[in-house]
Request: fold
Amino acid sequence: RHLAQEQSIQPDGTLIPSTCHGKLDTMFSETSGGKLTPRCVYTDLEPSIVQEIQRSPEGGIYSAESFTADKDDATNYSRGHYSIGRGHIDRTMDKIRRQIEKCDYLQGIIITASIGGGTGSGFGALLTHRMYQEYRQKTKIQFSVFPSRRISPVILEPYNAVLRLNQELDLSDSNKMTVIFENESLYKICSRHDNIELPNYPDLNNVIARTISSVLAPVRFTGPITCDLNTIQTNIVPYPRISYVVASQLRATPADQSSIADMTASCFAPDSTTTDLTQPDGKLLSTCLLYQGLSSVGQINSALMRLHTMRTLKKTSWVPTPFKVGVTNSPYQTDMSLCALINHTGLESSIVSLNNKYDSLYSRYAFLHWYHGEGMEKNEFACAREMTAAWQCDYGHENRGFENYYRYRYRHEDEDDSSESESSGGGEEEIETAVKKTRWHGE
Reply:
C-alpha cells in the first residue's frame, strides 16, 4: 500500500492521472488489461492472514499469483521447517519463479519475516536456503522482526530465533543483508517520533513499511546520487557473518526546518534506531544514508564532516570513511527525510540477550518435546547455540579486539566452571555443560 501510494497507484491497480509515477516497472508489472499488480508473493502456513489481505481495501490490486497458503499453522520452528513446511516450499518457490520470470532484469529480492514465530523461523529458514541455492548471485535484503529484550509475544521465541539464525549463518551468503527490527524499539519510535501514545501493530508495521520504501526509493525514483540494491549491500556488509544492520528514519517538515546536519546526527540516537545500540564499547562499521526530498549535496557533505568529528559516535579504525550516501527526489515526498542503514557492533547486546534467554529454557530442557515430536534431532539445539555463540564472538572481536576479548571471555568462563563444579560436584550432564561454556557472561 505504501509503495502504491508513493507511485500514485489506486487500490484497483489503475494510475491516478496527471501525477508523477516514477519507475513503475520496478515494483509493479502490467497485466494484459492495463492493471498494475505488485511483484510480490505472500506465503503463510495458515490461510487466515492471507485471506485478510485479500479482503482488505487494497486486496484488489493483487493477482492470484501473489498468494499461497497451507491449511495448518506452524506453532514452532520444527513444524515450519520439517513437517508442514516441507510440503509447502515447492508451491511457494513456483510462485516466486513465475514472478521473477516476468522481470526483464532481476536486481535483487526483498524478504520480510518475523524470526520469532514458527512460520517465520522454520519455513523462513527453509525458504532462505532454497533462495540461496537458486539465486545465489542476486542481492537479497531481508527485513526481520528480531526478538526484543523485554517484550515477547511468543514463549518459544528464543528457540525459534536461534534455530533460524543457525541456518542463516551456516549459509554465509555473501549477497545477503538483514535489517533488524525489535518491537520494543518500534514502540519507542511510534511514541516519540510519530506522537502515538498507544501504538498498535498497524502502527509498528507502518514504521517497517516506511523503511522498506526508503530503501527501495533509489531504484524507483531519480536523484543526484542514486544507488541500487547491490550498491547498498556492498557498502554496508564487510563480512558475510556481519551482515545484520539496524535502521533509523527521521523526517523534517518544511515548518520544522531542522538542518540536514542535525537530522543526520540524530539518526544515531538510541530512540531513533530500530534496535538498541547503547552498548558502551559498540562501534560503527558502516552506514548508508538515504536522503529523500529537497536535499542539498553541499549540506550533506557538511553533515558528513560533522559525523567524523562526533566523539559520541565511535568508529572502527580500519574503515576510514564508513558513510555511503544516496539522494532521491521523490514526487510523493513533500518534506525531507532520511533513512540510515547502520552496521554497528552494538548489536552484540541483542545477541547476548537472545542467547541468555535461550540458555534459560534449554538448561531445563523446557518445551523440547514439541520440537522432537516433529522430527528434530537433539544435537541440533546444541549446534545452533554454538553457532550463535560464534556469531556473538564476531561482534566481540570488533568491540574489544581479539586478544582482549578472549582474555575477558575465558576468564569468566573459568570462574563459572569452577563455581559450577563446586556446587554440583561435577555431576552435570554433558549437553548442559556445553551450553554454559558457550555463554558470555559480560552483560
The chain is about 45% helix and 15% strand. The chain has a mean pLDDT of 85. The radius of gyration is 23 Å. The longest helix spans residues 77-101.
